[in-house]
Design goal:
It is built from three helices and no strands. 77% of the residues lie in helices and 0% in strands. The chain has a single domain, classed as Orthogonal Bundle (Helix Hairpins), CATH 1.10.287. It has 66 residues and is an all-alpha fold.
Length: 66
Amino acid sequence: MPEKKGLRALSADELKDEMKSAKEELLDLRFQLATRQLKDVRAIPRARRKIARVLTIQRQREIESA
């Protein structure tokens, strides 16, 4: 997973891929939680924050290009 500064260096397509993988990760974590297989409960908020970071960067770029 790229760090915060690494996310900003990604292209628009790479950000979309990162978003897709983060959403898949969150879905998987939720299934693990529901089936009581989740070991690291802090992984869910981390995944949500990652999604928020990607959305923020995408929105900033959208505003800059307008």
